[in-house]
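Chapter review. Work through the record for AAA-like domain-containing protein before attempting the end-of-chapter questions.
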Amino acid sequence: MANQQGAVPSVPGDDLASLRSACVKVTCEDGTVGTGYLIAPDKAVTCEHVVRRVKKDGHVSLSFFDGSIHAASVERVDASTDVALLKLGPNVPSVAPLRLVGDVERHQPFELVGFPQQMGGHHLLLSGRVHDPVGRDNRGASAIVLYSDMVAAGAGARMHGYSGSPVIVNGAVVGHLRRVLIDSDADRASAEMGLVFATPGREVLRFLLADAPPASAPGPAQPPGAAYQSRWYVSRPDCERRALAYLEGPGSPAVLYGPRLSGKSWLLKHLENAWQKKWPQGAVARINLLEFAELASLEDLTRQIAYTLVDELGGHESWFGTYENGKGRASPMIRLGAMVKRHALGGDQPTLLAIDATDAILGRPYASDFFGGLRAWMQKASTPPWDQLRLLMAISTTPSRMIDNPQQSPFNIAEPVALPPFSAEDIAQLSQRHGLQASPRELEGLHALTGGHPYLVRRVLFDATLAVGGTRALALEPESEVFAAHLDSLRHFVERESLAELLWAVLREPTTAVPPDQEDLLKKAWLVRRTAANRLEPTCTLHREYFTRVLSRVAPR
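Structure tokens for AAA-like domain-containing protein:
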């Protein structure tokens, strides 16, 4: 569900204060009590059975965590999935809404905040694990089955008031609590086996998208491939949380890994902003190695980086003198390190060095020396002022193939943060931000066709905003002109790298043996992915159909 700008902000999984603030106690005129959660500044979700007795155009009271109470009207309900959408009035507290997602994995830990009647109106935190993400409740309805030791130890009757509580996994809402399994054989109402049931997030999202009014786009639609703009950024909470965790302390770089056009540069910039909010007095320097990819020597590269650091950090030209000192006696990376140590570090707060397109120099004779130098900086983390350096890098090449000597590689110090494609929910939210009224079926078709490739999704949505005559339909045919430039570029890449015969073999037989360097090239271009069954398959229907058609014409008979 979009907020007033069409976005659904995410809440960090460990930010309990934000979770509490976004949860409200729902009180009906007949005394029924439940829990709701904000999914937009003026919208909240709860269970349909909580507000079932509210008359048409009637109101409920929402008690916020700050103690204020505000009226809300029941806008829409769906008894089959036990979802109700509440419309809040004006002047409600400014609270960061929660982010909804459609899927969750088994055994994931969850937490939720509810307002059980036994607590006299106060909130109570509940935790446990996902027992079955695609289960059924005792009435046969689709449900996420949750297990909690806290529920198993308590009385089922005391769960009254928890209905509508958002189930939080990895900082996002995966569903909301709707029913507890009561042990009918017990002397008192108890929760049998500690099991409770939640309406799945995918059902909530489907309800919210159905009949939803078109959202207002946050300004002119942004063309795909354009520079980062926060209002068009699609949150990736798990990636953000993991990367920021690596940047929390010294010695472990955060490495963002994903194919071309997967959003690494945007995530890099988003992380810079998030990091700087935490360290407002800290310094940030950004380097894009794509700008220096054609330089012939390590001396040329480090000199350009030195100039860039002076500019990015607002330094003085005298800084460069530190780099020049020792020329002819010390290696370029040692001299660059001396400059970083003397001028970029040593303040009250850490310095973040963000390197985009880090693998752009891969294949250059000096690449290993440069990467080994970065590794050496990280290994000095126990010695001030190197303990103030934080390193964030983005790559499209498999980390293990970035350097020949693992002992010199900065890419294997910490587990790389792999960027996933857009989920169906991400696409739905981005569609709303474009001001489109795409149906759930269209959005599912877009996800299936593109596989959630961020560039392709943005390409289709942007094209729909340019439609003449107001149709604004999504291009869902592989032969559409919308994909022509992208597919033509991929075809030239396959030809240039002599991958046509190999790709054709993979299309026909997923178990085809592929040399690691060529497999990496195919993955880098987002042409194939390796499945859990260790088979290679095209990443999306669009690529499969296009290259099956094109390569079949030139394949050897």
